[in-house]
Design a protein that fits this description.
Blueprint (H helix, E strand, L loop, with lengths): L1 E3 L8 H4 L20 E4 L5 H10 L5 E4 L2 E4 L4 E3 L5 E3 L9 E4 L9 E3 L4 E9 L6 E4 L2 E11 L11 E6 L2 E6 L2 E3 L4 E6 L2 E6 L2 E3 L3 E6 L2 E6 L2 E3 L3 E6 L12 E4 L2 E3 L20 E6 L2 E6 L2 E3 L4 E6 L18 E6 L2 E3 L7 H12 L11 E3 L20 E4 L6 E3 L33
Parallel strand pairs: 2-3, 3-6, 4-7, 5-8, 6-9, 7-9, 8-10, 9-11, 10-12, 11-13, 11-14, 12-15, 13-16, 14-17, 15-18, 16-19, 17-20, 18-21, 19-22, 20-23, 21-24, 22-25, 23-26, 24-27, 25-28, 26-29, 27-30, 28-31, 30-32
Antiparallel strand pairs: 1-2
Length: 428
């Protein structure tokens, strides 16, 4: 089922046993590849594919024939500079790695630097679908990850999942039905996420504890929450900053939250467009954000989750947020879950039923060390909203009942911050 392209020698007898004819198949990814290409033929087993992953040389492509591969175990790739290439991400005419019968923990784990995964699909993994860990140089292009039974708590947590990586590019890909995040980049640096579609996940696209990320020209729809920028405590990388979210379509993310119990993303209210938790230096602009049942846009601290913070390095407050030139629409009148209840509580104090949540929500919880003498965030740390059409606003003044009522006065937030720099990604 597997052989080396042209003059690249076979590495093991096990690989030799899987040989197929070398040329002429127009539905094989190796055809047209310049340089060494290890051919994976239709019907190859997980063991044979894993042998190729172990014996491949740096700088090579592992190319798959068109077809569905039913794999009974997970795969791991530790060699630097390898490209995994299929014939397309479509169910028909593409390359589909199906883990529906797998006894493994996940789909594909990559720990080699400068890897590329392109033009294939990964389906129905027991855990995470495509994971990179501790890698410098991640490229994902024209890939589909999906749990084909639809949104279920038993689905794997993450679809496309680089963690503790740098120089990450995820583009032109599709993530469906992850029980945490469809596209997730965590504890990483120098990131571009562009032209992807995320749907029917709990979180469509999530940037967590990461630095210098550009998220643009994506579509997030049909998820519980569309786009999330989080910082969470207790992780090896703390207090990410410098995320730009722009030119995205974020709409109708009203899928009931199906995260497993205890998962932090399980607290995201059904019907959330964009949310930042404990985020720093975030610029959100030129997006269309509309038609969310709970809230179109929320900036909150981690403290509203009610979870204890024991990490001494963790900053649980959001600050230095600049939201400008976005288009908001729809009516948010059905908040859900504990955080949705907080929204309702705040609005009841200043609005008669029926309750409608404003487009822009801030929990009002600023770091005491960053406040001026009047209790407002210092100018360099403020939460700023400008030129967002007719979007309305509320400061929830959390925690409620401690003296200051919620306010719909947006004037204190009519401010700006210097634009964040674009991410410079080698080769992107």
């Amino acid at each position: 089922m597997i052989h080396r392209h042209l003059l690249v020698p076979l590495a093991t007898a096990g690989l030799a046993a899987g040989l197929a004819a070398c040329g002429g198949d127009p539905s094989h990814a190796c055809d047209g590849v310049t340089g060494p290409c290890v051919r994976i033929e239709a019907g190859a087993t997980a063991q044979q594919i894993q042998e190729a992953f172990i014996t491949v040389t740096s700088g090579s492509t592992i190319g798959f024939a068109e077809g569905r591969y039913d794999l009974d175990r997970d795969l791991s790739l530790a060699i630097d500079g390898v490209r995994l290439l299929g014939t397309g991400k479509e169910a028909s005419g593409g390359t589909v790695l199906s883990f529906a019968s797998s006894n493994g923990a996940q789909g594909v784990l990559i720990t080699g630097d400068a890897s590329v995964v392109e033009r294939l699909a990964v389906e129905d993994t027991p855990g995470d679908a495509l994971k990179w860990e501790g890698v410098d140089g991640v490229t994902v292009r024209d890939v589909r990850v999906e749990w084909t039974a639809g949104p279920l708590a038993s689905n794997g947590a993450y679809g496309i999942y680089p963690v503790q990586c740098q120089n990450v590019l995820i583009e032109d890909s599709l993530a469906i039905a992850a029980s945490d995040a469809g596209i997730y980049v965590g504890q990483s640096d120098n990131i571009v996420v562009r032209r992807n579609t995320a749907r029917q996940n709990v979180a469509g696209i999530e940037i967590e504890n990461s630095t210098r990320a550009d998220v643009y020209e994506n579509v997030a729809t049909g998820n519980t929450g569309g786009v999330l920028v989080f910082n969470l405590p207790g992780l090896q990388v703390s207090n990410g900053r410098g995320t730009r979210v722009y030119n995205n379509q974020i709409f109708e993310n009203n899928e009931p939250n199906f995260a497993p119990p205890g998962n932090i993303v399980g607290q995201v209210p059904t019907g959330t467009g964009f949310a930042s938790i404990a985020a720093h230096e975030v610029e959100v602009f030129d997006n269309e954000i509309r038609d969310h049942k709970s809230v179109n846009f929320a900036v909150v601290s981690y403290l509203i989750t009610g979870n204890e913070v024991t990490d001494p390095l963790y900053d649980p407050y959001s600050d230095t947020i600049y939201v400008h030139d976005n288009v908001f629409g729809g009516t948010s009148d059905d908040p859900t879950g504990p955080l949705g209840f907080l929204l309702v509580q705040g609005m009841v104090e200043i609005m008669s039923p029926p309750i409608v949540v404003p487009d822009l929500v801030w929990d009002g919880n600023g770091d005491p060390a960053k406040l001026d003498g009047g209790g407002a965030l210092l100018p360099q740390y403020r939460i700023c909203f400008q030129r967002n059409g007719d979007a309305d606003f509320v400061n929830l003044a959390w925690p409620l009942g401690e003296g200051t009522p919620p306010s719909r006065d947006a004037a204190p937030h009519d401010c700006s911050h210097p634009p964040l720099p674009a991410v410079a990604l080698p080769g992107a």
